[in-house]
Amino acid sequence: MSQKISIRSKRLLRGILALLALCSAVRADVIVVDESNGAGSDFSDLPQAIAAASHNDLLLVRSGSYSGFTTAKGVRILGLESNVEVSGPCVIQNLHSSRKFVLSRLELTQVEIRNCAGHVALSQIDGYPRLSSVVVLDSADVRLSELYVVGREGVAQAVYIGASEVELVNSRVMAGLAPTKIGTTSAPLERLALSLMMPRESASLSVT
């Protein structure tokens, strides 16, 4: 047990150091988001924090329950502790080609990435069984890693990728109450990697 905690702590430390290094390389601020408005916090919810942020800023999010958001900003969002829950859709759209959006260690329910020319990276999005829908449309450079997606009733596809260039790796995709499909529109995907880490009978995958 102590070994698992140590491994998770090291991964979190590496993630924080990497993001801080990115911030130090460019002009950026660090914003602390805390539902409880604890010491040293700047905002109590994500939409307000993102609205106040500038491109390249780093948002550190403490444990709590937060609202979904829509953004076109190139920011970094990192769950600083466990149990960082976001209710409602998280939409990244119209990201400029010169921008990067990074999100890690948050528990999401729905993700939409639309019309992004810039780089979008989501990782360690767990919180089983919260995440039930991931949609990527018309986006040029998306990396999704260590996601846990469980389809729910009323969702046609747990994961849908259309007219985009995407890497989906080291992720768990389960059918749940919906068919699990990774489909494309008529535009081909130039790179797509998928790793299913559940038993074969737990998930069905098709490319259309």
Which residues form runs of ≥5 with pLDDT under 50? 186-190, 195-208
The biggest beta sheet is recorded as: 8 strands, parallel
Measured by DSSP, the beta-strand proportion falls in: 35-45%
Query: How big is the Rg?
Result: 17 Å
Please give the alpha-carbon distance between the first and last residues.
Answer: 42 Å
**Overall 3D geometry?**
globular
Number of helices: 2
Give the proportion of residues in helices. 10-25%
Mean pLDDT: 80
- Give the tally of β-strands: 13
User: What's the order of the H and E elements?
Assistant: HEHEEEEEEEEEEEE
Structural class: alpha/beta
Structure characterization notes:
It is a single chain. The chain has 208 residues and is α/β, with parallel strands linked by helices. 15% of the residues lie in helices and 35% in strands. Strands 1, 2, 4, 6, 8, 10, 12 and 13 form an eight-stranded parallel beta sheet that branches. It has a five-stranded parallel beta sheet with strand order 3-5-7-9-11. Helix 2 links the parallel strand 1 (30-33) and strand 2. The longest helix is centred in the N-terminal third of the chain and has 24 residues, at 2-25. The radius of gyration is 17 Å and the shape is globular. Residues 186-190 and 195-208 have low confidence and may be disordered.
Write the layout of secondary structure elements.
Elements: H1 2-25, E1 30-33, H2 46-52, E2 58-61, E3 64-71, E4 76-79, E5 84-93, E6 100-104, E7 110-114, E8 119-125, E9 133-137, E10 141-150, E11 159-162, E12 166-169, E13 172-174
